[in-house]
Amino acid sequence: xxxxxLIFTLFLTGxxxxxxxxxxxxxxxxxxxxxxxxxxxxxxxxxxxQCFDQKLRDHIIHNFEYPDLALSExxxxxxxxxxxxxxxxxVEVLEVDGGHRYLQREAIRIIRAIPKMDPGKWGEKPIAxxxxxxxxxxxxx
Length: 141
What we know:
single chain; five-stranded mixed beta sheet
C-alpha cells in the first residue's frame, strides 16, 4: 500500500508540474515492455526486464563495500532505496529507509553509480520508471 501510494503521489506530482512527466513502477513498466535499457542489454538473449534485473544485481554485488565505520561499530541491517531512472536515463534517488546512516550512505553511493542508460519509452516518448531495491548489510565474521 505504501509503495502504491508513493507511485501514485509521484505520478500526480509529475502531472501537476508538467504534462511531459510520466513515472511508472517497475511492475507496470515490465508489463508494458517499456523497461529502461541497461548498457549492452540490447544484445542480450534475456528480455530487457530480465537483463535489467540481472545487471542491477551484478552492479550492487560488484560495487558493494562495507563501510569501515559500520564495521567498527558492528552495524548491520537492510536499507531500502527508492529511485527512478529518469527520462534522460539517469538515476535519481527518491527515498532511503532502514539501517544506520552509514549503511544508508553506502546504499545511496551504490545506486548513484548505476550507469546512464536508455530510458523507458511510452511509444517514442521517454518516461521515468521507479524502482525499490533492498540492500542487506550482514556484518562479516
